[in-house]
Amino acid sequence: MASDRKNLGLMDIFVNPMKVTIKQFFKSTFGKPTTVMYPLEKRDPPPTYRGMNAVIWDLCIGCGICGEVCPNKCLKMKPVDLSDEEKDKSWYGSHVAKKKSKAERPAINFGHCMFCGFCEDYCPTGAMTMTDFYELADTTREALIYPARSMKVDLEESPTLPLTNFMMESPALNSETCIGCSKCVDNCPTNCIIMDEGAVNKELKSGKVRNIENPFFDYTICIGCSTCVKVCPASCLHMEPIANSSSSGLTIPVPESEA
Amino acid sequence: MAEMWISMGPQHPMTHGLWTLKVKVDGETIVDADPELGYLHRSVEKMGERRKYFMNTTLTDRLCYASSTTWTHSYVLAVEELMEVEVPTRAQYIRTIMLELQRLASHLMWAGAYMPDLGHITGALYFWRDRELFLNLLELPSGSRLLYNFMRIGGVKRDLPDGFEEKTERILKLFEQRLDEYADLFENSKIFRMRTEDVGKFTGSQAMNMGITGPNLRGCGVKHDLRVEDTYEIYEEIDWDVCTREAGPGYSDCFSRYMIRIDEMKESVKIIRDCFKKMPKGPTMSARVPIRASGEAFRRTEDSRGEALMYLVGDGSDRPYRWKIKSPMFTTISACPHYLKGYKLADIPAIMGSIDICIGETDK
């Protein structure tokens, strides 16, 4: 036996362990129970609990970042028809003035969801939230696929939060190949793109020289969702880290924490 | 008497996860052993190469269910080195608090699993009762009880909630009383001492040769802790000591490996208290976190079980080109023929339990 180890006496062998056990006996017999009678009484999850998702539709701009960052790809953007009331309410901030009757909202397959909380973290408007609801078990697989409308929640007053680019990237243009189709403008969820006189003049078949309009980005409200890159038919857009995106000539804002 | 092979596992009370230990016995005495791993292989490294850097924290959480934050943390450290991200000081303090809470929960999980191995079912109840306290604490900021996903590249998910310090302090105080109870129940228990003393001995130099790290190495009296040797976060500024134990001059047995973990829990309590004292105010997330990276990064941290190592190669895209995880338990289990030889068959649960096996990280 090692020298630093205590030699055991009678107290150690019989009395001390008995004291602990008897203390615990009285505690568990007459004290408050540790367990919760589950279906009747439920444990209180903390406010940060990551349970079932809920989407504040008034804040959602349908950018699809939640689907982009989902590691399991269980979250898909689904087209939904908006009612008139929703159409009036449902656009985020004053700079996003598009009013369409069709929009895209997230739908989640909870059979695949692992409740990692990335969709909530990366949502640029704070529309995606996680509730403390955890009783999601169901009898069929299909029942676990929650359509977009089932996750809609309304707040009495929608808070207007600043748009944040959590993706840390924004689009940059190669004006040589741009064909000026303005698809990016139509699809941008935050309306941060405008078309203006471009750098390239192109000669048409008739011999006329025409200027091709190019997109210009307002990086103050760009959220880096890369929708424009995906819809671009000429592949003239790509994503660049925020600090390098200067191709449009607009100055890049310094984040608040650095200013 | 003829020698024969006995296969223990993959479903066996000794195994703590899915793995097989084949032992060659001569009567009751072990003459050889052959561990077989790979039942729980989930191809985490290759899965990670298909996902973006920040998404992989969900995978690293699942490497070890008992100690998920420490694994995510070592991954996050490697990515930060790759992307050259600076972490705000407050985030580093919060990380350290979470890491030490996780270490406490992990060691309690181990102790609770070790006691039934020795036939002491009551022990499991005592330790897991207290693990619950730390799981509740870890749930408060992260929002989940087992897979926290709290570490982020460049910081932490969110700041600590209000009243977290008071709650932690209350639980730590309670836990210190409980540590005294453990001393009465297990440390000074004749039966526990008889099962664990002079069983599964290996010396410090043997352990280093076999690649055994962490508490198992410190149990041999070797003062080696990556929190000091290759320091990270704010362990330098915190007031704490590396604790060592030994069974005799330079060697460890199961009892010293039990005691080193109890000592480490006491140190963790000290670290958490000191962190709260010194924690500054400020942001918890770095302002600029790129999502693309190139180059290579290599980071090792002191996991609850030993040296966790992450190696990352980036090729300029938003996903890792190569991701390598080195698990401390893989080497420790692989070395088991060396420290099982010569003991009786009935000592196997006591020896294999005492090294704190986690198959999730071993098989990746």
Automatic annotation (TrEMBL), chain A:
GO molecular function annotations of the record: 4 iron, 4 sulfur cluster binding; metal ion binding; oxidoreductase activity, acting on NAD(P)H; quinone binding
Alphabetized UniProt keyword annotations: 4Fe-4S, Cell membrane, Iron, Iron-sulfur, Membrane, Metal-binding, NAD, Quinone, Repeat, Translocase, Ubiquinone
Pfam families from the UniProt entry: Fer4_7
UniProt keyword annotation of DNA-binding present: no
Signal peptide positions (record): none
GO cellular component: membrane
Domain spans labelled 4Fe-4S ferredoxin-type: 51-80, 104-133, 169-198, 213-242
Top-level taxon of the source organism: Archaea
Ranges annotated as spanning the membrane: none
Record-linked CDD domains: MtMvhB_like
Listed Gene3D superfamilies: 3.30.70.3270
Entries under PANTHER family matching the protein: NADH DEHYDROGENASE UBIQUINONE IRON-SULFUR PROTEIN 8, MITOCHONDRIAL, NADH-QUINONE OXIDOREDUCTASE SUBUNIT I 2
Identification of the protein by name: 4Fe-4S ferredoxin-type domain-containing protein
TrEMBL record, chain B:
The name this protein goes by in its record: NADH:ubiquinone oxidoreductase
MF terms (GO), sorted A to Z: NAD binding; oxidoreductase activity, acting on NAD(P)H; quinone binding
SUPFAM superfamilies linked to this entry: HydB/Nqo4-like
Pfam families in UniProt: Complex1_49kDa (PF00346)
Matching InterPro entries: NADH_Q_OxRdtase_suD, NDH1_su_D/H, NiFe-Hase_large
Keyword Metal-binding part of the UniProt annotation: no
Source superkingdom: Archaea
Residue stretches making up the NADH-quinone oxidoreductase subunit D domain: 117-288, 293-364
Keywords assigned: Ubiquinone
Record bears the keyword Transport: no
